[in-house]
Please model this.
Amino acid sequence: MVISKRPLHLFVACAVAILPFFSSANTISDSTHVATEITHESPVEAHEAHDEGHGEVEPTDKKSKIKAFIDHHLQDSHDFTFFSDEETGKHYGFPLPVILIDNGLKVFSSSKFHHGEEIAEVGGNYYALHHGKIYKTNAEGQLNYDEHHHPTNEKPLDFSITKNVVAMLVTAILMFFLFVGLAKSYRKGPIPTGFGKVLEPLVIFIRDEVALPNIGEKKYRKFMGYLLTVFFFILILNLFGLTPLGINVTGNIAITACLALFTYIVTQFSANKDYWKHIFWMPDVPVLMKIALIPIEILGTLTKPFALMIRLYANISAGHIVVMSLIGLIFIFKNWVAGPSFFGLTLFISIIEILVAFLQAFVFTMLSALFIGMAVQDHHHDEHHSEDMLGEHDNAII
Model:
């Protein structure tokens, strides 16, 4: 076998594949605390009730733990928790700054919440952290619920630096240094050096296989910066999601909606008159049909970014859920058959997830280029060309 001659390659491949196993560093006990909070008025009371009832652990409780842990992994967080000690209840990580606008600017550390177990007092106001959201409460931390058991307390405007925000900032800084380094490497010669050897094929691939075929040779350079930014931004965040940090940025629908909105804005503001003519007054169509097609075409401009948003969000979230569920099954079926079986299946899915990380970044970039190309392509010359060809054909017949 060829791979047997390169043990280093095999080791790296296996190491990357098992990274999702370590993403379970975030505590399950913390997640179960989040799940049990919902039946109590106060987060503090919920934590005490959880400690009192933490006697026997039934199989159903274990399943609930795993489900709560998966939900916790998919959500954003106001702190980084690398791992936790379930016996002592200690969390190892670091807090992040909380920035609220509530009758003024309130800035404090998320450590005041103690992972949602305590009430934070800031400037005479009291705040509780419930399911990743901050609510304004009284000194006892009382939360009021509606018929669907959702808190009805007032929520201040939250501009906090959360785990997802930190991941995006790190990604932006990393992209800046990578591409600055790539640009500087070209000063030494036509062939890049260092990590630029890895970046250049990806840049050429986006140019030749995505931008040129979908936008055209005349106008593709105008949008290359955006397409490269979107591709590498999504790719790096997808890869971060497979690391032990347990960051699920592109599995957050708010993030994917923002990315899709950028594509929508670029598309609409770059569109030419032919694009708008086909939306509001379709050529070569009866007048009544033109009027009927207007709302359909307008709706079509909105369904394109919606498809971008859902596709990226659903695929990344589904991958995380499948991997975490398979890991959870190892702890549910504690036997010598299920353990290795689910471990092997999880390893296989993890390798596929690495491929999905690249694939989803490519698909989002390709569809963005396709939508932009549909908006900037010039139909006027095609119509004249077809009319000239039709005239030549008629003259030939005569």
Observations:
- The first strand starts at residue 79 and ends at 85.
- The two ends are 70 Å apart (CA to CA).
